[in-house]
Design brief:
- The complex is a heterodimer of chains A (323) and B (335).
- Chain A is mainly alpha-helical and 323 residues long.
- In chain A, the strands form two sheets. Chain A has a two-stranded antiparallel ribbon. A two-stranded antiparallel ribbon of chain A has the order 2-3.
- In chain A, helix 3 packs antiparallel against helix 11.
- The longest helix of chain A has 28 residues.
- Chain A starts with 9 loop residues before the first helix and ends with a helix.
- With 335 residues, chain B is mainly alpha-helical.
- Chain B contains 14 helices and six strands.
- In chain B, helix 1 runs parallel beside helix 12 and helix 2 runs antiparallel to helix 10.
- The longest helix of chain B is centred in the first third of the chain and has 27 residues.
- The chains are: A mainly alpha (323), B mainly alpha (335).
- Chains A and B meet through helix 5, helix 6, helix 12 and helix 14 of A and helix 5, helix 11, helix 13 and helix 14 of B.
């Protein structure tokens, strides 16, 4: 852990890039820098934000979670099936789905720890498993027609300057993200996760409970993926087993673009928020351009990833040489 | 047993029990799984289907084995397969077929070189370096085809997956030829040792004069070229290049094929025969599920379960736990 705060960090670069992207949009496109666009940015990226937060906690601890997108689809489908097919109250369905995703995450953590298997292999199997299970629950998209979910979906908090307010799901997500930031900064668990990412043997020597921390980070990722799936249900008013394919990549990309190192031990929730915002603004810019096809989003995300990984790699090497 | 023979047999020993289980299951529960007949001069049957589709995975698994030997992993193979299919489809009407296929494979190899460059020069971890292409590659493939599914109608491209030679499907020959070439080049020269040394102890290898950077370049380049070949075979199957779903989940099948045949993800060794055996086992599991009326969407779940079980049994830590537990049980009566 750094004693002195570094003057320049990758997160600063993310903030700078975000400012540049927004300024560019504001100058080139009419109506870009408006409260409505900002509100849409938040509303459209709520589930990516939640998923990326979960992915970041695992990455902080030096692992990786590729099952994020599948867990989201599974949670969404479970909620939809419970509410529509079994007539369960949405609150109970939400609790069941969140418990399932959290337990599944914890199981993945246990596999990584106890079996000494690489994290990406375990979560790759998890990706397969949850996607298949989602299709086993319902073979195709299930629409939800329930007064409680309709109320939650249409409810919003008033925002200054925008007729459409902030959706409740987004507000809840923001509260969760703030809580995560506080927890990771001020609890023992947060410090353990960061220490684990710095090096397993060093963390063990410091007295970090390795097993508990590892299971904890994957469980937390499962919980956040589950919450992202729930946000998706509210957003789309349906549960689709085919949804969120490849979303784990977007989540990891957001984490990296936000300045976290995939070697573990670095990064912050603020960085994740900046990363998600940067991906969202990039997409928004492509939408405003209008004549560019959808595939440019993939190429742009790849380019962003490359730029930030390159900057990080060069920065790391400079730090190595000077220190 | 000599060391080289042990090395040759190890992957076979690894795959054999799982393969035996799958075979036994099908012998009991799937009627006609092993029936093979000759129709129009070609062999026909479920096992021939497995061979044909398994070859598509096997091509990638062979390349993946080389990359994993260097301590890396290539997540971009699915995207590279899509790009190669897109290039071949876009060029198939304008260029003669050998040139179109050649350009597609060269393009794929270039993408592999790009991956190797990120690993060698920027020193990115392989998962991360290849993640970039995994994300952006499909965008590139869509850009090449203009966002649509392109038809592939030239006779040569159709032959690649649907033709047959001496009764066997063409993909099996493509796999056989490629694997033999890779085997000769890696085991006939010191390249194989260089690859393994780069994965086993990169720093020691570098100090000993092993060109680790160039070894990685070869591994990622060959892997991408083979992924490209697999993409061409897939485009040939469906007679079209689909930039969105071509090569979907190919990286998972290929990595798992290497892992279940005893490949070590931390690098240091590889087995071409093992990779192929693993690919065939993966395809046989998939086919078994389809024959049991498991839908293609649900199939990944039991497949993941099967692979997890295989990895579990092979995991040294798990075996340690079980052995310790077993010895405690057996020791108890005497105490």
């Amino acid at each position: 852990m750094n004693v002195r705060r570094p003057r320049w960090s990758p997160t600063t670069a993310s903030a700078l890039a975000l400012v540049i992207a927004i300024t560019f949009g504001a100058i080139v496109y009419q109506g870009f820098a408006t409260p409505l666009v900002a509100r849409n940015l938040v509303a459209d990226n709520t589930f990516l934000l939640l998923a990326a937060c979960g992915a970041w906690v695992v990455i902080l601890s030096g692992g990786i979670d590729l099952s994020v997108g599948s867990v989201m689809a599974f949670t969404a489908v479970v909620i939809a099936a419970l509410v529509e097919r079994a007539g369960v109250h949405p609150a109970l369905a939400l609790a069941v789905a969140l418990a399932a995703s959290t337990v599944f995450g914890a199981l993945q953590g246990a596999c990584v720890h106890c079996l000494q298997l690489p994290a990406f292999l375990v979560t790759l199997a998890g990706l397969f498993l949850m996607r298949g299970l989602a299709f086993a629950v319902v073979p195709r998209s299930v629409g939800i027609d329930h007064p409680v979910i309709a109320t939650v979906a249409s409810a919003s908090l008033p925002l200054p300057g925008v007729s459409a307010g902030l959706p409740v799901a987004s507000a809840v997500a923001i509260v969760m993200v703030v809580a995560l930031a506080l927890a990771m900064a001020h609890t023992g668990f947060g410090r353990w996760a960061r220490a684990l990412g710095g090096g397993v043997s060093a963390a063990a020597a410091m007295g970090v409970p390795i097993a508990r921390t590892r299971v904890g980070v994957y469980a937390l990722s499962g919980f956040f993926s589950g919450a992202a799936g729930a946000a998706l249900v509210v957003y789309q008013q349906s549960g689709d087993p085919a949804s969120c394919k490849g979303l784990e990549l977007d989540a990891i990309a957001a984490v990296v673009v936000g300045g976290a190192s995939l070697r573990g031990g670095a990064g912050s929730v603020v960085g994740v928020v900046l990363g998600v915002a940067l991906l969202g603004v990039t997409q928004m810019l492509l939408v405003f351009q209008g004549d560019l096809s959808a595939w440019w989003t993939r190429i742009a995300v790849g380019g962003l990833l490359l730029a930030f990984l390159g900057v990080n790699a060069v920065g790391e090497r400079v730090a190595e040489r000077s220190g | 047993m000599s060391d080289s023979r042990r090395r040759f047999l190890a992957p076979v020993v690894h795959v054999a029990p799982a393969l035996a289980l799958v075979v036994l299951f099908n012998a009991v529960f799937t009627p006609g799984f092993f029936d093979i007949s000759i129709r129009d001069g070609r062999l026909v049957g479920t096992m021939i289907d497995v061979l044909s589709h398994g070859s598509r995975i096997g091509l990638v698994a062979v390349g993946m084995a080389l990359v994993i030997a260097t301590g890396g992993v290539d997540l971009s193979v699915g995207a590279v397969a899509a790009v190669a299919g897109a290039i071949a489809a876009a060029l198939s009407s304008a260029l003669p077929w050998p040139l179109a296929i050649g350009v597609a494979l060269a393009g794929a190899a270039l993408l592999g070189a790009w991956n190797a460059g990120l690993v060698n020069i920027l020193r990115l971890q392989p998962i991360v370096a290849t993640l970039i292409l995994m994300v952006a590659g499909r965008g590139v493939a869509q850009w090449i085809t203009g966002g649509v599914v392109l038809d592939v109608r030239t006779p040569a491209m159709e032959y690649l997956a649907n033709g047959h030679l001496l009764g066997l499907p063409a993909p099996a020959w493509v796999l056989g030829g490629s694997a033999l070439a890779v085997l000769l080049v890696t085991r006939g020269t010191s390249l194989g040792l260089f690859l393994e040394a780069s994965g086993d102890a990169p720093e020691a290898a570098r100090l000993a004069g092993v060109p680790t950077g160039r070894a990685r370049l070869v591994a990622y380049g060959v892997c991408a070229a083979l992924a490209g070949a697999s993409g061409l075979v897939e485009a040939s199957y469906i007679r079209a290049a689909d930039p969105n779903s071509a090569g979907a989940l190919l990286e998972l099948d290929a990595i798992l094929a290497v892992v279940i045949s005893g490949g070590v993800l931390t690098g240091g060794r590889f087995s071409i025969c093992g990779a192929i055996a693993g690919a065939m086992l993966m395809q046989m599991i998939t086919k078994t599920l389809y024959m049991q009326d498991v839908s293609a969407d649900v199939a990944p779940a039991p497949k993941a379960g099967a692979v997890a079980a295989i990895c579990l049994v092979q995991s040294r830590a798990f075996r340690g736990h079980v052995l310790a537990w077993a010895s405690r049980i057996t020791r108890r009566p005497t105490a």
